[in-house]
Design brief:
Layout: E1 5-12, E2 15-24, E3 35-40
Antiparallel strand pairs: 1-2, 2-3
C-alpha cells in the first residue's frame, strides 16, 4: 500500500494550537499538486507505525 506524505510547515502564528501542513498524495509526481491546510495539534502523533 502506497502512502502519501504529510509535511509540518510550522505553527499558525494566529493560533499556535493549529499546524500548517502540506499533504502529498502517493500518486502525485509534482509537489506543486500538494494539498495545503491546517490540523489541530491534538491530531498529531509522534509515533511512526509500520516503519
Amino acid at each position: 500500500m502506497k502512502q502519501g506524505f504529510i509535511l509540518n510547515l510550522g505553527k499558525d502564528p494566529t493560533n499556535p494550537k493549529w499546524l500548517k501542513v502540506a499533504y502529498i498524495p502517493p500518486e502525485v509526481k509534482d509537489t506543486s499538486k500538494a494539498i495545503y491546510g491546517v490540523i489541530h495539534e491534538s491530531q498529531v502523533s509522534s509515533q511512526c507505525e509500520g516503519f
